[in-house]
Automatic annotation (TrEMBL):
Keyword check for Electron transport: yes
Cofactor: [4Fe-4S] cluster
A Pfam cross-reference name: CCG
Physiological role: Component of a complex that catalyzes the oxidation of glycolate to glyoxylate.
Protein name from the UniProt record: Glycolate oxidase iron-sulfur subunit
E.C. designation(s): 1.1.99.14
Catalyses which reaction(s): glycolate + A = glyoxylate + AH2; (R)-lactate + A = pyruvate + AH2
Alphabetical keyword list: 4Fe-4S, Electron transport, Iron, Iron-sulfur, Metal-binding, Repeat, Transport
Bound cofactor: record note: Binds 2 [4Fe-4S] clusters.
Stretches assigned to the 4Fe-4S ferredoxin-type domain: 34-65, 88-111
Domain of life: Bacteria
Length: 462
């Protein structure tokens, strides 16, 4: 149904009154028309039952209807209908959404929330009504970060200061720095001093079981090169011939989620051209990138590359998903530690991958995996969210750390760049000894017996 056609109006006094009460009477006047890119039928899937609210991190923290999925769907639909003006208040409630998709997992009616908020944000950007960030931040997020080499060189001074003065070198200057810059510096892990350049081709160890191509990511590759190195080596160890296409680029997730659709499409097109399709799988170890790569059919819809986008997306596998399907060879070394696992939103909610990382970690001898309460609640990283909404990001980061500390774990594993940064930042304020790592790092340590992190024991089999 297109905008302007007649629509069924759901009369739901509870939600309407709650939202209207919080918005005030001025918000009930007709507003700006927006929403041409949204399939209006998707709004109608929401029966306003409210079962999603308890899963929504912002509702858990604030307890307000407009900061719940149901409230946001109501707001977006009201704006599209012209019943609610798109004022700063409405934009703020929508900007506070992490796009974590926990509401999709919780919704019994199958509401595709991502298909509503993402095109809605894209149109806000298109009409110049989106979030207004400083120019330098926009340049950093959308020009520098998507380029691995630019990111590497932009961090050159930070690498130097970390090496000379330590990880907290910036703290004496904190009062003089703008908030956003201070947040960026606080979240950075110890940076690798060398740039890891994976070989374009690596042979399998032993008989070949599969041929795969590995996606590296952009910021991820610069901040966590050891994760990509462990992934390539682990895949070789598991009998895979590994290709790393050298012309691959950023997946476009940052642009897509911020509503910059054209830029996301250009990046998607370059990846579709860079990756061969005569492989068994395109492997990705980053939850956020993985969900965007699997969505290329949709990202590229309406472009000349739409079909190639679908073919590409059909080949994409999260590394855990792939290793379990390959029948993982159990590692030969043990890790006698207690560990826990945090579900990255774009792995558990967007890709429905929950058991596979746990299954793999449980194959490590002597590693005791303990459950993490609220493991599926977002840690507050959410792409660039910790830069654009630092207050809520911090609340969620600290909430996550409380839960982790209660497990008594010596290690916490999670499979997303933002989660690794966010959890390490707040956890290490209280417990710097806890190992924060990607599951493939632990798996590779247990396969080769080499321990990259001080304090983590490794046991040698008899
Ligand atoms: S999104 Fe789903 S769970 Fe939430 S109110 Fe709508 S129908 Fe209910
Ligand atoms: S995507 Fe996450 S933050 Fe946004 S409404 Fe859904 S559960 Fe809440």
């Amino acid at each position: 149904m297109s905008l302007g056609q007649s629509r069924s109006v759901v009369s739901l006094p509870t939600v309407e009154n709650a939202v209207a009460g919080q918005l005030g009477p001025s918000a009930r006047t007709p507003g700006q028309r927006i929403g041409r890119g949204i399939d209006y039928e998707l709004f109608l899937d929401c029966v306003h039952c409210g079962l999603c609210t308890a899963a929504c991190p912002t509702f858990l923290e604030l307890g307000t209807e407009m900061d719940s999925p149901r409230g946001r769907i109501y707001l977006m639909r009201g704006v599209v209908d012209g019943r609610i003006p798109l004022d700063d208040q409405v934009r703020h409630h929508l900007a506070l959404c992490l796009d974590c998709r926990a509401c999709e997992s919780a919704c019994p009616s199958g509401v595709q929330y991502g298909r509503l908020i993402e095109p809605f944000r894209a149109e806000l950007q298109e009409f110049g009504l989106g979030e207004r960030w400083p120019r330098w931040l926009q340049a950093l997020l959308f020009q520098v970060f998507p380029r691995r080499r630019w990111t590497w060189w932009s961090l050159y001074p930070v690498r130097f200061f970390q090496r000379v003065f330590g990880l907290d070198w910036w703290k004496p200057l904190a009062g003089m720095l703008p908030n956003t810059l201070r947040n960026m510096l606080a979240v950075l892990p110890p940076l690798a001093q060398r740039y890891y350049r994976p070989p374009a081709w690596s042979p399998p160890h032993g008989p070949r079981r599969a041929r795969v191509a590995v996606f590296l990511g952009c910021v991820h590759h610069v901040l966590f090169p050891q994760v990509n190195e462990a992934t390539v080596r682990l895949l070789q160890f598991q009998g895979c011939e590994v290709l790393v296409p050298q012309r691959q680029v950023c997946c476009g997730a940052l642009h897509y989620h911020a509503g910059h659709l054209r830029a996301a499409q250009q990046l998607a097109q370059r990846n579709v051209e860079a990756f061969p399709l005569d492989v068994d799988a395109i492997i990705v170890n980053i939850a956020g990138c993985g969900s965007t790569l699997k969505d290329y059919g949709h990202v590229l819809a309406g472009t000349p590359c739409a079909e190639q986008g679908q073919a590409f997306a059909a080949k994409v596998r999260d590394v855990h998903e792939f290793l379990v399907s390959l029948d993982f060879y159990p590692p030969g070394f043990g890790l006698p530690i207690q560990a826990t696992y945090h579900d990255a939103c774009h792995l558990c909610h967007a890709q429905q991958i929950r058991q596979q990382p746990r299954q793999l970690l449980q194959q490590i001898q002597e590693l005791k995996l303990v459950p993490l309460s609220e493991s599926e609640v977002c840690c507050g990283a959410a792409g660039s969210y910790n830069l654009t909404q630092p207050e809520m990001a911090e609340r969620l980061g600290r909430r996550k750390v409380e839960q982790i500390l209660q497990t008594g774990a010596q290690a916490v594993f999670t499979a997303n760049t933002g989660c690794l940064l966010q959890i390490r930042r707040y956890l290490h304020e209280q417990a710097p000894h806890i190992w924060v790592a990607h599951p493939v790092e632990a798996l590779w340590v247990a396969c080769n017996g080499h321990v990259p992190y001080r304090g983590i024991p490794v046991s040698v089999p008899d």
